[in-house]
Design brief:
alpha/beta; Rossmann fold; 6-stranded mixed sheet; 15 helices; 20 strands; single chain
Length: 540
Amino acid sequence: MKNGLIRLTLIITAVAISLPLQAQTGQYGSSLLITVLAAIVVLLILGAVTLVGENVVSMEAQKAGVDEEVNMGIFPSVNELFAPKVPAHAAGKGAKVFTKGFELDLVGDADNQIQDIHVKTFALQPTDYRGNAPIPKVVVNEGDSVKAGDVIYYDKSNPDVKYVAPVSGEYIKLNRGAKRAIIELVFLADKEQQYKKFAAPDLDKTNREAVKSFMLESGAWTLLRQRPFNVVADPKLTPKNIFVSSFDSAPLSPNLNLAVAGRGDDLNAGLEALGYLTSGNVYLGLNAGDESIAAEFANAENCVKKYFMGKHPAGNVGVQIHHTAPIGSGDTVFTVNLQDVLTIGNLFLEGVWDTTKLVALTGSEFKNQTHVRTKSGANIGDLISGNLTNDNARVLSGDVLTGKKKTADQFLNVWDDQVTSLEEGDYYEMFGWILPQHGRPSLSPTFFKFGDTKFKADTNMHGERRAFVMSGQYEDVLPMDIYPQHLMKAILANDFEQMEGLGIYELVEEDIAICEFVCTSKQPLQKILRDGLDYVQEQM
C-alpha cells in the first residue's frame, strides 16, 4: 500500500508541475489545459486500478506465505530503485539494507585459521547469567571429580534451571566477590574429556514439554535469554518468537562461517529443538552482504530466514528483532547465540554436553590474531599465553564496545566468542580537541579516512564526561525507529511511561553500545540503559 501511494503521488506531482508550462503555449493554452486535465483524470484512474490490483496481489501473496518484504507489485518500489546491490545469494529475498550504522575499522582482525590451544582451567561464572540471585546453591564440593554436563549449581529462586560443568575434571575452588557473591566456580580440566550421557528425545516424535524438560535437566536452558531485560529465560513462559543471528558485525568480530562449517546437522537440530519452545517462528538472521556465506547457513532448515545488510549493529539480534517482529509491551521473545544453537543441536543428536566453540583472538596487541578452538569459560591467561606484544595492553572478554576487562587469572564470559587486545590509553592529550592528531575511528568528519584505512585504537576516551547535550548522533548510528537520547534522559528521570513509550523493551546493552562510542558527551549509556531495564523490571 505504502509503495503504491508513493508512486501515485509522484505521478500526480509530475503532472501538476507540467500544468503551468502547458498553459503558456499562447492561443492553444486552453485546449492544452483541458487535455492535461483529462490526462490527469485518466492517470488517477489507472493509478487507482494499479493500487487496488497491487493490494489484491499482496494479500494473496501473504496468504500463500510469500515474504512480506518481497515486492509483488507491477512496478519496483522506491527502496528497490535506490537500494545498494546485494550479492546473488540474497537477491530477491527481501534483504533489509541499513543506511545507518558505523564501522570502527580497527587493525587486528583474526585470520581464517583455526588453532587448538590447551587450556588447563575453566569456570562457571554465575554473574554471567543476569536475573539470578548472587549466591546460588552449589551442589558439589571442592575436590570432587565431575563430568561435562554434571549439575554444579542452581538458582534458589528457580531450581528447575540447572547449571552444569562445561568440562570434565576436578572442581578446585570457589571465588567470591562483593557481599560474598559467588563469581567463579573453577575446574581443572581432564586431558581426555568425559561426558555425562543424556537420553535425548527424538526430535521427530516429541513435544514442547519433553524438549523443555530435557533442556532444563541437561543445562541447555541456560543458553536461552529472554527479552525484554536480557535475563535467563523463564521456563514458565512461551516466547512469541525465537531469534538467532548468524553473523556478528561488531568490531573485529569472529567469522561464524568457520564455526558452522561441517556442522549443518547440529545447526538444523538446534533450530528444530528451539521450534518446539515457541508459539511463533524461529528466525535466523543471515548476512546479505557476505558473498562467501557458509552453505550451512544458506541451506538451514526449521527456521524462517531473514537477510540483513549494513554497518554495525546490523548483526545484533536486537536490531534484527526490531525489523522482523518488534517487541511490544507484554511480549516475550527468546534469543540464542549461534554457537549455542550448535551446542543444543549436538546435545539432541549425541546426548552429550559439549560446549566446544571458536574464539577469535583479535586486536593490535596480539602477535597472532587467529581463531582458536576451546570450550565455554576458558581461562584468559591460557588462551593468550605468549601472544601479547607488550605488557601495556588491556585484554577484554568480548569486543571493544561491550567487552569486559580481564586479567590472566580470569575467564572468558559465557556469551563471548572473542578476546580483544588494546593498547592502554594511559596518557594525557593536551589540547587534543584543537591540535592536529593522528587518524582514529570517529564519527566526526574532523578525522579523515582514506579508502580501506584501518586504525590502531587504544583505551583513551579523549575527553571526560560532559553535559548531556542533544546532538542527533545516536540516531545516525542506530538503525531502529527509536530516539535513544530521549530514552536515556527518560531513564535518568525515572519516567516509567516515557521509557515504555520510547522503546526500552527493545534494547539491551549491545544495541546502545555504538551510540556510547560516538557520544560527544561521553555518557555511560550501557550502564544507564541497564539501570532503566532493572527499574522497569522491578515495577512489573
